[in-house]
Amino acid sequence: MAPSSTIPPLRHALVLLAALAVALATLTATSPARAAATPDAPWVSGQQVAGGSVTVALDWDPVAGASSYDVWISTAGPDVYPGVDPHRVTLAGLPANHADIRQLTPNTTYCFAVVVNGNGGPRSCKVTPPASRAVVPTALQTTAATFNLACGSKSKCNSGWKWKKRQKKVVADIGRVDADVMVFVEGHVAHKYGKKKRWIGKVMKKRGYTLACQTQKSKKRKLFSQTAYVRTSEYAVVGRKQNSKGTRFTMFGDRDHGFCQALVQHRATGKQVAVGAVHLRDGKGGADALRQQETRYVVDRVSAAFPGVPTVLLGDYNAHRGLDRRGQTDTPRLVMESAGYADAVDIAAQLIYPYLNSAHGFDTNPPRSSTWPTHVDRIFVSPGITVPRWENVAVLAGGRYAAPMASDHNPVKATLYIP
Questions:
Q1: Res. 244 pLDDT band, cuts 50 70 90
Q2: Does residue 215 share a domain with residue 190?
């Protein structure tokens, strides 16, 4: 939270903004295909760090019958509604369901609520990027994605929509994501189950990818629960001996939780990048501590194997910022941030569908995040890496997911500038 001394300059800047013009230099927004009867929570669709401050692009659903909107802005944090924050700033009389909010402090939590006719809607909160994560183009621009396939065993493959129906959708989503680095989580059986030509390994090879690492229980039995693939035309896999030693996290007697790491080299620039595929344990209570231990283990393993190498750790962390409001803790983020990593959704300049939870549990009515972008599917990047774009790869028709659904998770994808 910003100290109170920063509030008056912010108030002055925002009042000036409202008096002169609102909806300046529009940043790209993605809007749901529906209109709300009352204000819903807004979302941040873009953020730019420049000159020591941040400009946030805020969007919200249009409200039927509304001729103008007010926006409340608070730095009191998610436990105080902006309407009761004594330091609240109001942007009044906005003519459209978008505002560019300037002069925000980097690395600070802001909460927003839309107001129509004096009635405020639910808030959303977003931490602004630190100044060190201002987007800087580099010679190595790449895309990376993580996709939980919900197919670690035959029973899990068929626990939602049957794999016979899902498999084709999964392959279609792989083509839609089309990232240079692709991580699959909970996908062991997906590599050798269902229609043979759609086995994940075969699909990735046909599309020009190389397997970089996989979870491994022992030398005798290779597991494909967590895998990382790289586009062969973009990357060469190096350090095979280090890459092959995956780890399995055991808790429920299954093979679904674990980690693998890979060192890859970008062909055009010669730069090396470390990649990790991660699936932390789920559950409540003591799982907070377990996820913390597992995250620390992953960070230590990658740092020891590939010291000083830019690193991207992707997967299902079974935690998100919203846990902090549910009696749990987002322990993976705390560990990652203490090691200098940032969640791509926190620092991306453009955000696509940040308000839809990437884990939807086969619900065709897309679950929307309240307060925070609550994504368990995450892409963490080491210091120096910046993120021009983050996307929850959701395909909607008429505001709903089409059935049958590919998985109980959407893929999450980020564009990265790697120094």
A1: low
A2: yes
